[in-house]
Amino acid sequence: MVGAGRKTPGGLFGQVRPRLRQGFRHLLHFRKGAAHQPSLVRLASDRVLRPKTTGNGTAAPCCAGVHGTRSQTRFAQSWHVLAHLGQRLKSVQTEILMIGTELLLGQIEDTNATYMARTLAANGVNLYWKTTVGDNAGRIIDALRLGLSRSDVILCSGGLGPTVDDITRDCVAEVLDAPLEYHSDLFEVIAERFRRRNRPLSENNKRQAMLPRGAAPIHNANGTAPGLIAESEKGVIACMPGVPHELKPMLDNIVIPYLSWRFHIRNVIHYRVLKVRGMGESRVDAAIGDLIAKQSNPTVGLLASPEAVRVRITARAATVEQAEAIIDPIDAAVRMRLEGLAACIDRE
After folding, report:
1. 18: in domain
2. What ranges in 152-280 are assigned the alpha helix state H?
3. pLDDT tens track for 99-127
4. Which of 22, 29, 19 has its CA nearest to residue 51?
5. How many domains does the chain have?
6. Residue 278: which domain range?
7. Out of 50, 227, 273, 279, which residue is the most buried by the measure of CB atoms under 10 Å away?
8. Mean pLDDT for the stretch of residues 198-224
């Protein structure tokens, strides 16, 4: 990760500095009077990440001060974060951590995980692991530590409410060795939302204004629980509420644009599914098994179901159109192999 082999940037700094500044102007917009050019290692906790529409109509994370008063870490003090740029040259590894005992008890369906997986794929972000854990501090901490040992990014859902069993913030603080800090200005944002809704504010709502040191809060347009993004040498942890209509805009408008910029992701992951009827999974595998074993882009996978065997062909490319072009030859090869064996092959 970042801590390995820090070197004085020298010529590298001169090469990337204009690009970094351009990226800051595009993605990290500050209110008038606030400092600019933030540290890449830590987004100061007096900045709230909000959605911002760019010139081409796409959403980008906008880093705006809650009140725009505290000074930001100077860019010159953070030259070592250029080591992060090395990660932009490789494929980022991401996993999701779903937090909530209700998920383990089967009380609710985990629709958040499905939405997150689809959204990550559509934006070219590799998702390699999914973990579900209950509201238990020890197990959440274990899951976070395991995740950081194998992934660059952990996206968490749940545990950001005001109650005593909402402990995601506490666990992130423990894992990153970044003590929780109370932010009165962030609490004012929460309190104002309660006032607008004419709802009573409890003392325990102050828990939602606690952040691991150095983390950036994510504005919640649909609820009272701010999300957060915490960067460290161990990796990136982004936490979002478990309520779907609060999680989805945070993921779409803040977290995905942040990851795309942070790890220089410019691809999509697109797939096509062929439904093969009249053949069992083992016969399909015997006919196209070498395609499954040998392909890297696109990849080929099988999924059995009562009505058909699904052949999924997945490609990574700059655009959906380019991904479709990569998929086409494998699609043709699968159809040719199965011609005369399957009753029919339909595109799902």
Report:
1. no
2. 168-176, 184-196, 244-250, 256-262
3. 999 999 999 999 999 999 999 999 999 99
4. 29
5. 2
6. 271-347
7. 227
8. 91
